[in-house]
Amino acid sequence: MAQTSPTIYVLYNANASLLGKLDYSVRKLRASAQNSPCSACDLTHGGLSLTETKEWAATKQQIPATVQQLHRDQLSPELRDFVSTNSLTYPMILGRQPPGPLQFLLGSEDLARVSKDHGAFLSLLFERAKDKSIALSKL
Q1: How far lies 22's CA from each of 33, 51, 72, in Å?
Q2: 47 to 28, 44, 105, 113: CA distances (angstroms)
Q3: What is the pLDDT of residues 50-99, one digit of tens each?
Q4: Vertex 112 angle, CA 89 and 126, to 5°
Q5: Cα–Cα distance between 131 and 135 in angstroms, integer?
Q6: CA 51 to CA 30: how far, in whole Å?
Q7: Distance in angstroms (rounded) separating the CA atoms of residues 12 and 37
Q8: Are 43 and 53 in contact (CB under 8 A)?
C-alpha cells in the first residue's frame, strides 16, 4: 500500500558518526550564540545534548506527519540528490505529500529565527507546508 500521509525531514548540519559528533561539538563551542552551526540541532536537542528535549518531543507530537530526523551522512540518495541539485545549505526542513515530490520548507535562516520558540516553529512549518500543498493541519 502506498503511503499517503506527509513526511517532514529535519536535516541536521552534522554527521551521525562519532567523529561527526566531535566535529559538531567543536563548531558549536567556537560559534557565537547568534551563529549556531546547526539551528535544527538547537531546535530538537537544545544544542549539544545527544537526546531530544522534552519540548521537541511535545512539538513533534503536534506535527500530523511522519517526522524523520537525519544527519548529513544518513541521507538516502534521493534526499542527497535533492539537496545537491537545489544547492541547499544545511540545516533545513524538507517535506513531501505523497505521491508528490520533495519540497523545501525551511532553511537555516528560518530555523535560526525559530529554534528557541517551538510555537513559532510550528506556525512557520504549517504555513510553508500549506504553501507547498503538504497537508499538515493543526490538531
Answers
A1: 19, 15, 14
A2: 8, 8, 21, 15
A3: 788 899 999 999 999 999 999 999 999 999 999 999 999 999 999 999 99
A4: 90
A5: 10
A6: 21
A7: 9
A8: no
State the Cα torsion 11-14-15-21 to the nearest 10°. Answer: -140
Q: Which of 101, 138, 100, 106 is nearest to 125 (CA)?
A: 106
Burial class (CB in 10 A: 0-12, 13-18, 19+), 109: exposed
Specify the 3-state DSSP secondary structure of 91: coil
Q: What is the reported pLDDT for 56? A: 95
Distance CA 120, CA 127 (A): 11
CB distance 95 to 9 below 8 Å: yes
- Please give the distance of CA 88 from its chain centroid, rounded to a whole number: 13
**Residue 35: strand, helix, or coil:** coil
CA distance 29 to 131: 36
User: What is the pLDDT averaged over residues 101-108?
Assistant: 97
Distance CA 31, CA 52 (A): 21
